[in-house]
Write the structure tokens for this entry.
Amino acid sequence: MSNSYLKIAISLIKYHFENNEIMFKAKCNELIKALFENGKTDLAEYIEAQTYPEHTFSVQEVKKNEQVYF
């Protein structure tokens, strides 16, 4: 783990316990950006999905013989 990742992780823990969601998400964004830049896209996408679940795509189940409208 690089030093910059460690600093971000410590900040994330701090902001989490302070209930400072604005700074927590800002540090998450910093971590996501760093991970993408270093080719760790799977981890970056996972953290992004956990941080912003409203931005993720989820498959909806369709029952047999159910009418589907698009």
